[in-house]
Amino acid sequence: MDESRTSDYTLVIMKNLNLLIILYIAMLMAHSLSGYIQENSALDFLTKIYRIPIAAWKIPVIVIGLYSSCMLLLYIQNISSMGLLLKVCVELGISFCISYVLGFSYTGIVLLILADTMRYFPKAKWKFPLMVVMCLFYLLIDYNLIAAYGNITPFEAYLEYFQVDVQYILLGIKNILNSLNMLVFLVYIILLMRAQLSEKERILVLNEELRQANIQLENYAKESEKVVKTKERNRLAREIHDALGHALTGIITGIEACTTLMDVAPEATKEQLKAIAEVARQGVTDVRRSIKELRPDALEKRDLENALIQMMDEMRSATKAEIVYQCTTGLNCFHEEEENIIYRIVQESITNSIRHGKAQRILVHIGRKENMLKIHIEDNGIGCGNVKKGFGLHHMEERLNELQGSLEYSGEKGFIVEAQVPIRWDAEGKHD
Amino acid sequence: MDSVKSKKNRIVSIISILLLFCVWLIYTDTYKELPGIRKEVITIGVFSDSYWQVQNGNSYQILEDAIAVFEEMHPGVQVEYVSGILKEDYSEWLSERLLSEQAPDLFYVLSEDFNDFAEIGALKNLEPLIQKDKEFQKERFYSSAYESGKYNGSQYSLPYECAPKLMFVNQTILEKEGLEIPGENWTWEEFYEICKKTTRDTDGNGTIDQFGAVGYTWKEAFESNGIHLFNQQGTRCYLTDDNVEAALMFVEKIEELNDGYNVTAKDFDLGNVIFQPMSFSEYRAYKPYPLSVKKYAGFEWGCIPMPSGPDGENVSTLDSLLIGMNENTRNTQYAWEFMKILTCDTQIQSEIFDYSEGVSVLKEVTESDQTLQSLIESSGNTGSLNQQILSKAVENAVVAPRFRNYDEAIEEVDKAVYAIIEGDSNISMEQIIWNRKINGYLEKR
Question: Considering the entire predicted model, what is its pTM?
Answer without folding.
Answer: 0.69
